[in-house]
């Protein structure tokens, strides 16, 4: 019995001894989990990376693993291992410009945007005066970043309680001269992604639909055609945020509503006009309207020659009392006179003004300023209706970060729709100069504000940078289906984007924010954990095997000579 009891005691002691390492491991893991719980995850959006004819632009890197720093740091400090956090509200554009132009070393740049610029933030349709200054500042920042070659990661994020608290702590430490390092601790920003890769064979997709006109009995001649066109894609500093509510979401919405209105007229043989109506949603607008050019050249020559004139819609959602009609042909041209007089008469009836702006095109220069210039190059009469007084530069003003839903006015778009629809209807049905409202507000042909709002909301939440859209992109399929509901012979044309442009992926990531302790804290924590484990180990040995066994563990073993003796 005694031997059996001793055997059980030894067995229990062996089990407890085997558990010591397990207990220690669990304690260490528990400590690590507690530390890791301090991480905050924030969605971030990378600055676009692209090449033009091999010349690099935008942010050339994507991964981050550096401590956070703020504008409160001491001038001349080494920031090569720091991520500089810049809230837009406190941004000094001259400082950023100097930093980039002087090619100073920086671990990374994180720009914090107010929530008002978040694409999903669907607010009212009027521009808030308090945000105008921030919009101008953001536009300047985008222009600087997009047209620079930046050798470090640049990301955008939106302010929230977590980023505000982090920035407050970083500002406080930097102001005291305690720049975050592995020695002093602070906040560490980590983005673990693979390096950007080239997008192979980016495509642009054009969508077109027809409303065929009515022929007179015995008339075999081809009917004249009026084209209504709008470019639907965007370009901005951050592709994952480039929704272009005004440029050119407003133009797309206006085209869809005009197609809906005329589909009602053309569905009845008695009210079908003797003009074909051609609706086209084109891609590649920011890239010299390349999609428009390729779409026009793909049309049958007879069909292209049948186009009486084309109306291009560009940015019609942020104006008050005046819209501009941009043309390439001289104002004295008979067709231009007819188009402008039609617009002027309707605008007068609606209570606002339209002005004509003429800009002659240079055939020897492949660069076009407006979409209608692609028509003019093929000797097709065309005009662009827009609120913009001057044409946007290449890769600019086509879906900037500040072009969001709350800065677009639904009423402005509706007035633009009425202008285009009424002027087209008066031309088609021969009512020029007559005070006739075919699309009166109290009629069955009235503009539908709910339809306008719904599509504007959708486009204001959908980034549309062409190289990042697939051929079967849900938005492209939705636009195609919408045209199919109101027009016939709807088709999609896929084309390759001009080879001079090269784009890179990795547009959106997750930023992990860790509040890390200093080395001193780590050493102290290690000392405390080590002491705790030693005390725990000693307690378990004493309670299970006695004090003598604990002393024997730490006792120096006898030397070989003593054993031999």
UniProtKB/TrEMBL annotation:
Chain ranges passing through the membrane: 523-547
GO biological process, one term: regulation of signal transduction
Signal peptide start and end residues: 1-38
GO cellular component terms given for this protein: endoplasmic reticulum membrane
Location of the protein in the cell: Endoplasmic reticulum membrane
Protein family membership: Belongs to the nicastrin family.
Name by which UniProt lists this protein: Nicalin
Organism: Brassica carinata (Ethiopian mustard)
């Amino acid at each position: 019995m005694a031997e059996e009891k001793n055997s059980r005691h030894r067995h229990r002691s062996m089990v407890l001894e085997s558990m010591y390492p397990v207990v220690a491991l669990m304690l260490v893991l528990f400590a690590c989990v507690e530390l890791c719980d301090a991480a905050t995850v924030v969605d971030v959006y990378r600055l676009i990376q692209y090449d033009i004819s091999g010349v690099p632009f935008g942010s050339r890197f994507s991964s981050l693993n550096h401590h956070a720093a703020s504008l409160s740091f001491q001038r001349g400090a080494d920031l090569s291992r720091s991520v500089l956090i810049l809230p837009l509200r406190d941004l000094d554009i001259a400082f950023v410009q100097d930093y980039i132009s002087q090619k100073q070393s920086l671990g990374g740049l994180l720009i914090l945007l107010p929530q008002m610029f978040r694409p999903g933030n669907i607010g009212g349709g009027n521009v808030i005066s308090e945000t105008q200054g921030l919009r101008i500042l953001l536009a300047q920042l985008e222009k600087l970043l997009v047209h620079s070659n930046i050798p470090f990661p640049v990301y955008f994020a939106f302010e929230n309680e977590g980023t505000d608290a982090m920035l407050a702590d970083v500002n406080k430490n930097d102001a005291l001269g305690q720049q975050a390092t592995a020695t002093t601790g602070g906040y560490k920003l980590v983005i673990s992604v693979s390096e950007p890769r080239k997008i192979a064979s980016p495509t642009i997709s054009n969508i077109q639909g027809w409303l065929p006109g009515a022929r007179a009995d015995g008339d075999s001649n081809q009917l004249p055609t009026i084209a209504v066109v709008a470019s639907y894609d965007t370009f901005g500093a951050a592709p994952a945020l480039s929704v272009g509510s005004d440029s050119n979401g407003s133009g797309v919405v206006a085209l869809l509503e005009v197609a809906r209105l005329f589909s009602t007229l053309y569905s009845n043989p008695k009210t079908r006009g003797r003009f074909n109506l051609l609706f086209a949603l084109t891609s590649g607008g920011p890239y010299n309207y390349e999609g428009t050019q390729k779409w026009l050249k793909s049309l049958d020559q007879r069909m292209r020659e049948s186009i009486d004139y084309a109306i291009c819609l560009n940015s019609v959602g942020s104006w008050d009392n005046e819209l501009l009609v941009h043309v390439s042909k001289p104002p004295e041209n008979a067709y231009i006179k007819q188009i402008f007089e039609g617009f002027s008469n309707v605008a007068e009836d609606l209570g606002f003004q339209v002005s004509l702006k003429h800009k002659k095109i240079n055939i020897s220069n492949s660069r076009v300023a407006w979409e209608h210039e692609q028509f003019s190059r093929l000797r097709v009469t065309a005009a662009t209706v827009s609120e913009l007084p001057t044409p946007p530069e290449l890769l600019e003003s086509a879906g900037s970060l500040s072009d969001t839903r709350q800065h677009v006015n639904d009423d402005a778009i509706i007035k633009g729709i009425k202008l285009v629809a009424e002027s087209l209807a008066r031309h088609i049905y021969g009512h020029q100069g007559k005070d006739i409202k075919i699309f009166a507000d109290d009629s069955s042909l009235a503009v539908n504000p709910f339809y306008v709002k719904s599509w504007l909301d959708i486009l204001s939440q959908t980034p549309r940078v062409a190289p990042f859209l697939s051929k079967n992109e849900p938005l492209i399929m939705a636009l195609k289906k919408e045209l199919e509901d109101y027009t016939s012979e709807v088709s999609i044309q896929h084309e390759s984007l001009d080879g001079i442009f090269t784009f890179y992926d990795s547009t959106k990531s997750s930023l992990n924010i860790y509040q890390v302790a200093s080395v001193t804290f780590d050493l102290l924590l290690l000392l405390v954990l080590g002491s705790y484990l030693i005390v725990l180990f000693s307690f378990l040995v004493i309670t299970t095997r006695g004090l003598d066994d604990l002393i024997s563990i730490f006792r120096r073993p006898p030397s070989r000579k003593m054993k031999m003796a």
